[in-house]
Every structure is written in C-alpha cells, then in structure tokens.
Amino acid sequence: MKDVKRRGQAVEAVLFTNEVLEVFKERLDxxxxxxxxxxxxxxxSTSWGQYNLSVSNLISTIKGVSDVPLSYLIRKDRVxxxxxxxxxxxxxxxxxxxxxxxxxxxxxYRIFKGTILGTPAWAWIKELDKAxxxxxxxxxxxxxxxxxxxxRCRLExxxxxxxGTKYLAEHAFF
Length: 174
Prior knowledge:
Blueprint: H1 2-6, H2 18-29, H3 48-60, H4 87-94, H5 101-116, H6 122-125, H7 134-145, H8 148-163
C-alpha cells in the first residue's frame, strides 16, 4: 500500500491478489538487515571508484523515513528510459526528492561525512556541511573525482605503474 502511494499510483482493490499477498509474506519472512562493512575512511583519488561503490552500497542498506533505501538520495540521474533491472532499482528511482528528503538526507550525510572527515575529499564539501545534504555533497564529489582532470590523473598513474612493471617469468612464482 505504501509503495503504491509512494509511486503516485491509484490504490485499486483488484491489485491485491493472492500472488501479491504471497510476495509480501515472503518479504516479511526475510531477515531485516544484512551486515554491511563500512567503506572506512576515504584515502585518495586513486581509490575513488572503490570508495564510491562502497559508500553507495552502505547507504543502500539503510532505509529512510518512507522505507526506501537511502541510496535514492545519491542516485545518478537516469540517462534513458531503459527498464529497471530490479524492483529495488525501480523503488530507488521512483522515490521523489521531496517530502521526507531533508530528514533522510541528514541521516545519510552523517554516515557519509564520517567516512570523509579529515581526508582530501572533505575540502570539496566542507562548505556544504551546514546544509547536511547528502545529494549535493555526493554530486560535488562525483563532479570532481569522476571529472576529466581526475580521470586523466588516474590514467597517468596507471601508465606509470605499468611502465615500471617487469615480467619476471612464470618460474619466479614457484
């Protein structure tokens, strides 16, 4: 019922079939939460990709006020209207960025802030601290760390590592 309202769909009695009831019974029988390892503190620009995935994963395991994973706050804009790959993805993308956004954003921001405080990334979002907006903060970091300048730095770093690597033959590993 909550989900139908959240998606802005009309509630119709004919939608509540035995199949729907079984799906919801199955959901209730599942464990409430799964332990997810914190991504730890952000280290440097070379670890941005792993950090971004880890923080997104952590935030997706925590439910907000309207029972939607907090990852709806830091979702990227959809480029096209391809079908959703899962019900969870559809739920995240159909959650409006209104109503409970402020409470959810503050909760996600506190988690997020704890992983970047005192790191180089903190300088990029320090000015947004009073707003405590997870969406704006993640957008700023993605713009910087996924931008052309940092991508070029990671590429140069990879080239340096590759050029300094020497093949020692297979017998060296035995």
